[in-house]
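subagent[fold] <- orchestrator: predict structure for attached chain, return tokens only, no commentary.
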Amino acid sequence: MKGKGNALIAQAGGPTAVINSSLSGMVTQAAQENNIDRVYGCRWGMYGLLNELFIDLSREDVQVIQGLKTTPSSALGSSRYKLAEKDMPRVLEIFKKHQIHYFLGIGGNDTMLNVFQIEHFCRKNQYELFGMGCPKTVDNDLFGTDHTPGFPSAARYVALSVLQAGILARDMQKVDSFSVYQSIGRDAGWLAAAAYAAKKEEADPPHIILIPEVPFNEENFFKQFEYSLQKFRYVSIVCGEGIAYADGKPVSASNVKDPFSNIEFGAMGGTSAALVLHRMIRNQYEFRGEFQIPESLAMCAADRAVTHDIEEAFRLGQSAVLNAAHGVSGLMTTLVRQSDQPYRVEIGTIPLNEVAAKTKPIPREWIAEQGLMVNEKFGEYIRPLVGPMPEYAKLGYYSII
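subagent[fold] -> orchestrator:
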């Protein structure tokens, strides 16, 4: 029955190139559901929820909602605030005040945890709430889904960046003998490993991929560095920002922590793994090299967004609303791969408590034996996601003598 309740949508955590496509899918689907009256958007994630910073998305022009499909970043705004148990009574009070009976969270591990906590608390207090999660993270570390929306586009950004920077390093090897590219990814190396998508031959960049799943070993690293230097005359390295030694100490040597006691990497930490690796190599060989640290650029590069990534994000948003409007609650919508060639996925679901606050690593069987590269099993996984890589010309360097 129309007017049964209002829906509230929140985006949380870091943005992606396609998170707004999920928002567009949700608003579009909600407009077709008789059980949903108004659709509200929560400004600034969970911080905005606690402070009732809501906007009425039902009043937005249809063309604006459609335009969100190809708009980068997070249109509702986001924050790093994570709800605690002490916040739940306040959340319930706000939901009652605004007659919110549908709560839809778009985000990663922590967002799924918050949706689960809210849904559970409301049910325990006999308040009718249908809570659904929609996956989002360029880190690709959510359980229960083949991949997360935003990852394919960010992965393509990384693969193209490393490929092109590698060509630059190859041609400028008399000036700079190595390059280090750092990707985001605190605990999982999916995005760093995505550079493999453009690699066809051993000589192609990258030559070394360092990921958080494998403890960093300086001796093994330099053995592989020396091998690549001797064979290719330059070395292309990719590292995840969260790589660490076997004792858990970050390679970045950062001691700065965020409000959740997580070590800050990159600019926020005042140092980075790429800078430390660069310094190690300089100290060992005393020759020049480059490093690239794009930080969050991969999260909002709409010009490199993958078409199916946009469409999958939209469908996942639609599915979350469709499930909630028909009485389903406590689930996250997922992508289930049906085929690599041709690439095809279906929409599924998984209980939120199986996803919340967990991190999905790259399977060990997808990582090369020495831990300094991924293997072709990962290649079979990643290539359908990022799409075809460009083919660049290469001189034959024929001698005139």
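orchestrator: received. Logging for downstream: Residues 151-299+361-386 form a domain with the Rossmann fold fold (CATH 3.40.50.460). The chain has two domains: 5-145+303-354, 151-299+361-386.
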